[in-house]
Amino acid sequence: MAFNHLPAGVHDALTPLSVTPVTHSVPMAKNHRSDRTPADPASRPSPGAVLDRLASGPSRAARITHTEHLPPRAGRHAVWPDRIRPEVIAAVQACGIEHPWAHQARAAEHALDGDSVVVATGTASGKSLAYLVPVMSTLLDGAEAPNGRGTTALYLAPTKALAADQCRSVKELSQPLGTSVRPAVYDGDTPFEEREWIRQYANYVLTNPDMLHRGILPSHPRWSSFLKSLRYVVIDECHTYRGVFGSHVAQVLRRLRRLCARYGSSPVFLLASATSAEPAASARRLTGLPVVEVADDASPRGELVFALWEPPLTELQGEKGAPVRRTATAETADLLTDLTVQGVRSVAFVRSRRGAELISVIAQERLGEVDRSLVRRVAAYRGGYLPEERRALERALHSGELLGLAATTALELGVDVSGLDAVVIAGYPGTRASLWQQAGRAGRSGQGALAVLVARDDPLDTFLVHHPEALFDQPVESTVLDPDNPYVLAPHLCAAAAELPLTEEDLELFGSGCADVLPQLEAAKLLRRRTRAWHWTRRERAADLTDIRGAGGRPVQIVETGTGRLLGTVDAGAAHSAVHEGAVHLHQGRTYLVRTLDLEDSVALVEQADPPYSTVARDTTSISILETDTEIPWGSGRLCFGSVEVTNQVVSYLRRRLITGEVLGETKLDLPPRTLRTRAVWWTVTEDQLDEARITPEILGGSLHAAEHASIGMLPLFATCDRWDIGGVSVPLHPDTLLPTVFVYDGHPGGAGFAERAFHTARAWLSATREAIASCECEAGCPSCIQSPKCGNGNDPLHKRGAVRLLTVLLKGAANEPTEGTAAG
């Protein structure tokens, strides 16, 4: 029997809420008005005072395991390069910015010199101005050129919200410059009647990599004048381009550079990231160009108080009678409620769409018990909303109409929400980079800020709140991406050939993997070589061969049956587990039941309902080894890395009572299996090692399964991943190894570099895993150590002590860490 643990989108379980009544120890702010605007920073309570109030309720103080104080920092000014147009400097000064910070001036100097540059300074350090000032100055120069349109610039953001927010900022800043700077957002929400004007007249186009891939590059003849004049490409929040998504974006950028060269331009790339290790190396992998690094942050910073918060144990019992902590969802909802009552403007970051909706609903209900006028001051924000819903929420948060927001990572990036006082993070977001990005959402006007990380009942979260040095004494992770991944490279070579026939001279641009991939594309009759170039052979669009976000197909639309109203979408890869027939779906505080999932038409039909339960999908997984790239002895066992094929099928779902998490029943499902070819790390143990670890046949499966769960939970400390990006399988006797084997694999076609990183850090990774299990205070295993929220086998069997003994023996024979390859960064 194989015990499995699946990647992104497979389970989004609603964990049980505690029935402990909430006591609001903080009185409602006096003279509260529903139209309240953000308070003056000088009148705001200090972050320490806000935290003291949050911790003043019964048993609240004991939940804080650590408090980190980051002191304020003074800023260092400089002067803008003398090549910046005086009109632009005047426009910046009109916004209240008399002098730039030193890093802004330095980045602008590089941009004007024609050097591609990455600005890697802290959140709210003014990175936008560092690239906007040289871009606007150059656009102003171009507007006076005699050739009509003049110079152009392209801005790429990972989310529509960020692009829309940046467009607002550019319009405000460039208002004194008249029509010399003409910014416009061009994405899937842009009305068709506006698109032709943008192509012909806009000189600063703000879009996202998806639209560049599917819309702009395939239609490059219609964008020829824009591309011919393209001087700058701005890539904001560049640290988000990692894994498979980052690898796809790297190839999209190479396609852009190729077309620009054909039209006679060679744009300078300006990149920005608040959280990136080795930013120049990461930017070079992303763009394929030499990049200068500006990382000396000269901006001032207000005090940041960062608290680690562990919810208490409850009297409830989970699977197999394990003790259960109060959920991060319930705890975060309480904190958001208390912050709103205090008048503290806050965002609660939640890992799942369902969690964001649930926290919003709970906070609204509890606010209604305090003051009904506060209910509408809290809302949810997540991906999958319709464009008009997202824009309205962004405006309300920016204006101060909303005091509290429960948001997914759709709001993590640089949307200007200045004026926030506090951030609550419901569960470790997977990487230190994301943690600091989310914490940096507060205090963006230079005032002090509070950040609270609320631990989930999970091995990694439990480890972190008791080992703060793993968060505060470690640098952020390196960005992992591999543009040579053949699953990534192949569709982009097809797309490039469809845009312009692909020549020998182009191959160097796309990387060394072309030599292996091109013959396969020719054999598949996707490309045909004629004389000196390869041509796209099909009538359909080559850009539609791949979804660059790795979703694996077109999104499933969620439609209300009675009205035909489109509620939103869910990624194709998550559809089997999220919107299967009978699933509970939450949308803006309302509950729906899925009546039908039509996979052929990518539509889930839902109707409003009020079931007293949540749903959790169950699945089965098998794995086979395709090729072993490398292996090293660990005692008599082996540590291996290579290619595997994973077959997964969602087979049923559980109904869980909302309050207690009690399982009410299981319903079978008939959904097709899905196959994934990817990369994995795996380790085997021998009979001698099992004897030494005192692992009998009766506890072997549970010991392997427990070690697998905990190792997946700990991997985000060592690889730039989230536990939902990876999966695992443990087998007491695997047919390919003929030994007990534990696999951990990338949840993306072709791999994403995470399993390779695990292979290269295996001794440290599995040592931390063993410590996390051994130090947990539970008796036989719990969600804080070996139980997994996404286990396809219902966390059965598991054996905590066996896992500790097994890992102890395995690590005794551990070899030195292997030398890292390029794909792991």
Automatic annotation (TrEMBL):
<feature type="domain" description="Helicase ATP-binding">
    <location>
        <begin position="108"/>
        <end position="294"/>
    </location>
</feature>
<feature type="domain" description="Helicase C-terminal">
    <location>
        <begin position="335"/>
        <end position="487"/>
    </location>
</feature>
<dbReference type="InterPro" id="IPR014001">
    <property type="entry name" value="Helicase_ATP-bd"/>
</dbReference>
<dbReference type="InterPro" id="IPR001650">
    <property type="entry name" value="Helicase_C-like"/>
</dbReference>
<dbReference type="InterPro" id="IPR027417">
    <property type="entry name" value="P-loop_NTPase"/>
</dbReference>
<keyword id="KW-0547">Nucleotide-binding</keyword>
<dbReference type="InterPro" id="IPR055227">
    <property type="entry name" value="HRQ1_WHD"/>
</dbReference>
<feature type="region of interest" description="Disordered">
    <location>
        <begin position="28"/>
        <end position="59"/>
    </location>
</feature>
<protein>
    <submittedName>
        <fullName>DEAD/DEAH box helicase</fullName>
    </submittedName>
</protein>
<keyword id="KW-0378">Hydrolase</keyword>
<dbReference type="Pfam" id="PF22982">
    <property type="entry name" value="WHD_HRQ1"/>
</dbReference>
<dbReference type="InterPro" id="IPR018973">
    <property type="entry name" value="MZB"/>
</dbReference>
<dbReference type="Pfam" id="PF09369">
    <property type="entry name" value="MZB"/>
</dbReference>
<dbReference type="Pfam" id="PF00271">
    <property type="entry name" value="Helicase_C"/>
</dbReference>
<dbReference type="GO" id="GO:0004386">
    <property type="term" value="F:helicase activity"/>
</dbReference>
<keyword id="KW-0067">ATP-binding</keyword>
<keyword id="KW-0347">Helicase</keyword>
<dbReference type="InterPro" id="IPR022307">
    <property type="entry name" value="Helicase_put_actinobac"/>
</dbReference>
<dbReference type="InterPro" id="IPR011545">
    <property type="entry name" value="DEAD/DEAH_box_helicase_dom"/>
</dbReference>
<dbReference type="Pfam" id="PF00270">
    <property type="entry name" value="DEAD"/>
</dbReference>
